[in-house]
Amino acid sequence: MSLGNEYLKVVQERFKSIKDLGDKTISQLSNDEIHWNFNDASNSVAVIAKHLSGNMVSRWSDFLTSDGEKSYRNRDQEFENDIPPKQELIAVWEKGWNTLFETLNGLKGQDLLKSVVIRGESHTVLEAIERQMAHYAYHIGQIVYIGKQIKDENWETLSIPKGKSEEYLQQMLRRNQK
């Protein structure tokens, strides 16, 4: 396997991992909770998810052949909290992720040094992937943080629970010795 193909495999796993954090957070929230925001300057989980999807559809559609900022995208509208039911939000969310993964699945290692354009600025495919990884991880972190604020003591942790680090370490060491 080439270095480029290995990178594409690893990056897909990383994107799936950050998507999983978003999925697990959204699943813990009610319809009302996905629309909660701290103040008018803050975004709700629904708004962040809608923005991520809009970004993904724009960036990853016709990835190698057209500017990543598509003319049909209305970025400002992504920040309007207007998706009523949670199921509709999940459909929008999945559309973005599906677009991303379909494109990544179609890339080959030799594509990584090709040029793509985002808002008129040239990037290698590798740079564009890393740019989006950072952007998506940033927003997924916001979604998780908001979810933890809303759920408080009812939050189901997505990582190692507080006070359980040593127990987790020992469990992982045992698992990996087998």
Write up this protein.
Helices cover 62% and strands 4% of the residues. By secondary structure, the protein is mainly alpha-helical. It has a two-stranded antiparallel sheet. A hairpin with a 2-residue loop joins strand 1 and strand 2. The longest helix has 27 residues. The two termini are 26 Å apart.
What topology, given as strand order, has the largest sheet? Answer: 1-2
Count of helix runs: 7
Rounded mean pLDDT score:
95
Intertermini distance: 26 Å
Which structural class should the secondary elements be placed in? mainly alpha
What is the CA-atom radius of gyration, in angstroms?
18 Å
Name given to the CATH homologous superfamily: dinb family like domain
Using the alpha-carbon principal axes, give the shape: flat
Q: What are the secondary-structure elements, in order, as H or E? A: HHHHHEEHH
Portion of residues in helices?
Answer: 55-70%
Main sheet specs:
2 strands, antiparallel
Could you tell me the number of beta strands? 2
Q: List unreliable stretches of 5+ residues.
A: none
Number of domains: 1
Instruction: Based on the coordinates given, report the CATH architecture.
Output: Up-down Bundle
Supply the key terms.
single chain; 178 residues; mainly alpha; Four Helix Bundle (Hemerythrin (Met), subunit A); two-stranded antiparallel sheet; flat
What's the gist of this structure?
InterPro entries: DinB/YfiT-like, DUF1572. The chain has 178 residues and is mostly helical. It contains 7 helices and 2 strands, in the order αααααββαα.
